[in-house]
Amino acid sequence: MYQLEAGKWHNTRLEMNGTSLKVYINDKLVIETEDTSYDNVKVLGDIKIDEESKNESVEDSKEENSKEDISDSVVEDSKEDASDSIVEDSKEEENEEGVVNLNQYSVEGFAEGNIGGGIIDETSSSYAKVSNATELAQALKKKSKIKVIEITNDIALGWNEIESSAKVAPITQNIEPLTHPTLKKSGVSKITVDSFDGLTIYSKNGAKLTHAGFVFKNCKNIAIRNIEFDELWEWDENTKGNYDRNDWDYLGFEGCSKVWVDHCTFNKAYDGIVDSKKGTTGLTISWSKFLPGDKNSKFYKAMFDEMESNESQYPMYKYLRSLGLSQDNIMDVAAPHKKTHLIGATEFASDNKDLELTLHHNYYKDSQDRMPRLRGGNAHIYNIVMDSRDANKAKSIISSSLNKQINSAGYHFGITSNGALSTEGGALLLENSQILGVSSPLRNNQKSASKTEYTGKILALDTIYKYKDIDFRGSSIEKNSPLSPEPAKALDFSWNGMDKLPYSYELDDPEGLLERLTSKEDGAGAKQLDLTSKEWMTTSYK
């Protein structure tokens, strides 16, 4: 018999699997039984609530539940929603106490139905607490039995800094850095996650992973939550500012299905941030934050201090300085991230038609392009903010005459200003979002308007767009809309391979999105929510 302590709230959870029922109080298993009817409530008689406990807790409760109400809340729901009844009850109670409503953080979009690695006990052999590269390598080894990986602290994953025991599959050496002093010392690793079906990677404290990129191949039901990714960028002398050598992405998905990236923070990277290819379906990226280079960051500043001290080793940087640009000028122009989401890596690949992407409640700070860039398939974007106001200011540092000189010297240095792109027959719907400081908010062809085979379908609805003197709220199909796509003639919108989206979703008023997503209490990004392990492992709170 389990005695509840009076005068405090208790976290209660019911798990049902077939005829097996388990009841947890404060993450402790207190009842385990079999029930073939799902209406047998006698099992709850094992939980004792004495009169003193009941009276004190009910007096404190704003719901004023009776003893029977408290017990019945565990099992009154039907079989369909029994597993969610505890979450729903606690959600209502927490709302009255001013605690964040978790219902809004359930997996949505094309990843709907993704359960990750499930909810398992930390003592299970399928649960791995990871604090270093060796433990991560063991947990992510192909055919591993691990279902949940908890990152307990920051981990530096560079090839030269990890222990020798970690230098085994799935961790390999990545393309060698050429310019950044930190990365030349640490090295860069590539971590290939292959053929996992059911895996959650999360951190309760928003741990940071540095100096490595992850590639997921042929995986299903993947959840990545509350993690920060950083220090995967360097100045590009090799391709003269085109950033075409290193191929460093934080996350790449190849031939995967049902992937959820949620409440993560991504800092500036050399190449893409989160890319998807080879027919990856069911990808949702939600409540995440994408940041530019930060002049106050030691990592970002170290690159420019190195070049300032050794100009002769960095011809492009030296040339820019010779044009009268200061170190601060160059740092400002270089800060915005170049490429964000490439969905479909190869032109007209046969599996591009299968690509699926949902982006919602993401904050993109000074991304120059690809939010996303879609090659075929379907993409749904809602309740996001593209905030390129600072990038737009930095763009003015490079005058037209300076730009001509830079181009004549064979260098690429400036700021592109694109938003969402749909190409090669892709279908992209953007709803209830804000686009700030972006000169080309919607594009529908990456080649030429005359090459119609490269044109994609793109539609914006109820979106706020502000750029210079433009202050607009509306759709891309309104007459003289500044959101009308370019450069090709807009195609009538329709989904590819379906009449409507296969999921339901709620739209927020775009007016308050910027404040909501940049909130320091419950906005987008890692370290925004204070959840239990069980809550981070949960994919649906509804």
Number of domains: 2
What's the total count of β strands?
Answer: 34
What is the CATH topology classification name of the largest domain? Pectate Lyase C-like
What is the mean pLDDT?
Answer: 89
Q: Which second-level CATH architecture of the largest domain applies? A: 3 Solenoid
Beta-strand percentage range: 25-35%
Order of strands, widest sheet: 6-7-11-14-17-20-23-26-29-32
Radius of gyration, Cα only, in angstroms? 25 Å
Q: Which stretches of 5+ consecutive residues score pLDDT under 50? A: 36-97
Termini distance?
Answer: 30 Å
Shape: globular
Query: How much helix is in the residues?
Result: 10-25%
CATH class of the largest domain: Mainly Beta
Largest sheet: 10 strands, parallel
Structure annotation, total helices: 12
Task: Classify the secondary structure makeup into a structural class.
Answer: alpha/beta
Task: Provide tags for this entry.
2 domains, ten-stranded parallel sheet, alpha/beta, Pectate Lyase C-like, single chain, ten-stranded mixed sheet
Describe the structure.
The structure is a single chain. This protein has 542 residues and is an alpha/beta fold. It folds into two domains: 2-99, no CATH class; 196-203 and 215-245 and 256-512, Pectate Lyase C-like, CATH 2.160.20. Helices cover 19% and strands 27% of the residues. The protein is built from twelve helices and 34 strands.
List the helices and strands and how they pair.
Blueprint: E1 2-3, E2 12-17, E3 20-25, E4 28-34, E5 47-48, H1 51-60, H2 67-75, H3 82-96, E6 127-130, H4 133-139, E7 148-151, E8 155-156, E9 171-173, H5 181-186, E10 189-194, E11 197-202, E12 208-210, E13 212-217, E14 220-225, E15 228-230, E16 251-254, E17 257-262, E18 265-266, E19 274-277, E20 281-286, E21 289-290, H6 298-309, H7 315-322, H8 327-334, E22 342-343, E23 356-360, E24 363-365, E25 373-375, E26 378-382, E27 385-387, H9 389-395, H10 400-408, E28 418-423, E29 427-431, E30 434-436, E31 440-443, E32 457-461, E33 463-467, E34 470-474, H11 513-517, H12 533-537
